[in-house]
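hiii so um. not sure if this is the right channel but i have a protein structure encoded as tokens and i wanna go backwards to a sequence. like what aa goes where. can anyone help
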């Protein structure tokens, strides 16, 4: 009698384990579907200037690690889409890391914190963008995960991750207080701790000093808000903080950070806030998210009435989507260059007026600023502003485009001496 009962219980146990695994697999697939959907949405309008800089590996404003990896995929016919899906996947599937951080909390708080991450405005609107800010936020989340680990992490691995973060984007410096504590509590010698903390910083400083474009970008970013009033600066930073966590997570996470009384978390939070005041960009709002997560983990008592908070958070996310200006049409650069690229003529493309790197990414030919002296070597001219002298050459105007575009009927091609970077 006991033997059949033993087999019955074993089968029941194995069935529950199998169902749990199937449930996890299905959840991973569902989350991946969301990631791909967000990546596809971000790709509808084409590549923007900053995204093009990273895909083309243009050496500013950020260090080379991530943009070099993006550029290494250039040989792929769907480079842009693949990079978008990879970045969206990392940001959405990072919810498993958030769940791991909350493993010691109640199931209600764990689910709520994971929901906070997935329905945060910064995640929903930045998943699938080819930007460095989401990568930096993920690196910050990884530092937070290491910060709350009960066992010590190898000092060498921490130093390597610190170096990789700094060479992904300079904004990784905003998580310096957390990294310092991670390194300081290592059982290694004082000298090794100093080396692990300072050498990555020294290397990134040396890189900046040897890169004039990086220095110029620092100068530009530092003076970006100089002409704005204090009220405008405060409003921008506040709106970015509010958007980061769809308001609800922003408030709960910030209160938890300060209630935790952990100086390293408070320090990183203040650094991010100060950075937004000095050099505001809407996409930097995501840098708050790892700190919101850290605050809730450090002071979980702040997270009460979990169901109510999560419901309000989801409603806030829905509201953000309802008032957002969603883009479902291709940008001008992609539409125009698709037509220009179909031309069988050889030559350069001249653009009159201000244009960004997205024009270079979309073009299969070298891009030059418009000058009448180069018209004899041009296969096409894009007139974002007036193009004087074009009527003296055999160009015909494309009539079905929003922008004024001229394509040469025939040209013997000779290569100019200098050119801007192109695909």
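sure thing!! here u go:
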């Amino acid at each position: 009698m006991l033997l059949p009962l033993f087999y019955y219980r074993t089968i029941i146990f194995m069935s529950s384990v199998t169902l749990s695994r199937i449930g996890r697999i299905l959840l991973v697939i569902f989350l991946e579907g969301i990631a791909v959907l967000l990546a596809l949405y971000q790709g509808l309008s084409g590549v923007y200037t900053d995204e093009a800089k990273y895909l083309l590996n243009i050496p500013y404003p950020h260090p080379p690690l991530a943009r070099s990896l993006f550029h290494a995929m250039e040989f792929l016919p769907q480079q842009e889409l693949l990079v978008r899906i990879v970045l969206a996947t990392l940001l959405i599937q990072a919810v498993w890391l958030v769940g791991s951080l909350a493993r010691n909390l109640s199931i209600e708080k764990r689910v709520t914190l994971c929901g906070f991450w997935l329905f945060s405005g910064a995640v929903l609107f930045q998943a699938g963008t080819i930007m460095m800010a989401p990568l930096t936020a993920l690196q910050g989340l990884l530092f937070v995960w290491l910060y709350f680990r009960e066992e010590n992490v190898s000092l060498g691995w921490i130093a390597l991750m610190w170096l990789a973060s700094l060479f992904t984007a300079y904004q990784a410096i905003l998580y310096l207080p957390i990294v310092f504590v991670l390194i300081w509590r290592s059982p290694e010698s004082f000298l090794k701790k100093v080396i692990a903390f300072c050498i990555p910083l020294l290397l990134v400083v040396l890189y900046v000093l040897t890169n004039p474009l990086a220095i110029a970008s620092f100068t530009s970013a530092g003076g970006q808000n100089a002409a704005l009033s204090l009220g405008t600066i405060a409003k921008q930073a506040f709106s970015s903080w509010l958007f980061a966590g769809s308001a609800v997570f922003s408030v709960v996470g910030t209160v938890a950070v300060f209630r935790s009384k952990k100086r390293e978390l408070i320090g990183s939070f203040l650094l991010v806030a100060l950075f937004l005041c000095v050099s505001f960009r809407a996409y930097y709002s995501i840098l708050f998210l790892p700190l919101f997560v850290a605050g809730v983990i450090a002071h979980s008592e702040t997270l009460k009435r979990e169901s109510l908070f999560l419901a309000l958070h989801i409603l806030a996310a829905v509201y953000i989507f309802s008032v957002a200006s969603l883009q479902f049409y291709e940008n001008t650069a992609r539409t125009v260059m698709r037509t220009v690229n179909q031309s069988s003529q050889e030559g350069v493309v001249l653009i009159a007026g201000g244009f960004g790197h997205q024009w270079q990414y979309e073009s299969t030919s070298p891009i030059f600023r418009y000058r009448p002296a180069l018209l004899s070597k041009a296969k096409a001219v894009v007139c974002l502003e007036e193009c004087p002298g074009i009527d003296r050459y055999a160009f015909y105007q494309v009539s079905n485009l929003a922008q004024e575009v001229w394509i040469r009927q025939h040209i013997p091609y000779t290569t100019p001496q200098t050119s801007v970077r192109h695909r």
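oh and The mean pLDDT is 88.
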